[in-house]
Amino acid sequence: MTQKILVIRNDKIGDFMLAWPALAYLKNASPTPHVTVLVPSYTAPLAKACPWVDEVIIDPGSSAAPSAQHVLLEQIKAARFDALLTLFSTPRIGWLGWRAGIRLRVAPATKWAQIFYNLRIKQRRSRSTKPEYQYNVDLALALIDKLSLTRPAMLLPPYWPLDTRQREYQRKVLLENVQAKEGLLIVVHPGSGGSAVNLSLDQYVDLVVQIHHISKIQPIHWLISAGPSEHPQAQELIRLLANKGVVATHFPTRSSVEAYALQLAGTDMLIAGSTGPLHIAGCLNIATAGFYPAKRSATSLRWQTCNSAEKRLNFSSFSSAPEKNMLTVDIDSAAKDISLFLSKH
């Protein structure tokens, strides 16, 4: 009989993308389980596109009316899940799983919400000793073992595998958008999504201008990405770059985050802070250059992208800098490293 698993990661887009390796391990276990995810509405398009997910349930959120919370509880009860895997635990979610009568409930052994779970895994994530996606994989493997499923062999990127023809089509569309037939397509995402800190626009200008002139591979087509509320910021970066003699254009706006992600698959590199787009790029296994603050719980190791190691560049502010101060990031060194990477790859 097929085991039914409910996986919960109901916070930011980047956090959800770092759950994809864990979802891949679950879906590749044997016998193959049925995997459902509980996510907020804004990550639902990505969840529905995930090849490791069979079904998606929308979480109305902690601020939803009691009637909506009741509907969610009844929906989960009716599904009769064999196991619950909570990758980031909150009291509301822990209580939800307990009230739904899910027999096996797995979560990290942190905070008092762990009382609602009967398989608690000690991880101490705040110490940042391994990547977030690996913490998630560890939880998934513990669940696989508890359900007496057979673990799959080690899974390697991409965790969002796409057909080569689809990637080539997206690349063709982007090149047509910049009226070019060839060249590198590099996306810069200066926004923060309201959570992660990022470089200033002046730092991005300095970085892009240096890469543009140092890199031995030409031409480079710069595409500036923006979230729904970040278009003025993207436009300002395009203006500032133009003042320095570097042409940049808007990354095409798409109707959904899934469409954005698929278009991103046609590019060569994404440069950003530790935001949703950076981790989408990681899942797609395109090259990433990520910028991280000097904060123990937000290190470049902890929030490492899940692409192949050879496609991943990380840069951080000085350890002595305030956690939200990115001004100490060595832009000159980053520009040289990114340019060298581009010349090799």
From TrEMBL:
Keyword Glycosyltransferase appears in the UniProt entry? yes
Q: What keywords are annotated for this sequence in UniProt?
A: Glycosyltransferase, Transferase
- What InterPro entries does UniProt report for this protein, alphabetically? Glyco_trans_9, LPS_LOS_Heptosyltrfase
Q: Which GO terms describe its biological process?
A: lipopolysaccharide core region biosynthetic process
Q: Does the keyword Glycosyltransferase apply?
A: yes
Name any one GO molecular function.
ADP-heptose-lipopolysaccharide heptosyltransferase activity
| Any one cellular-component term (Gene Ontology) | cytosol
- What top-level branch of life does the organism fall under? Bacteria
Matching PANTHER family, A to Z? GLYCOSYLTRANSFERASE HI_0523-RELATED, TETRAACYLDISACCHARIDE 4'-KINASE-RELATED
Q: What is this protein called?
A: ADP-heptose:LPS heptosyltransferase
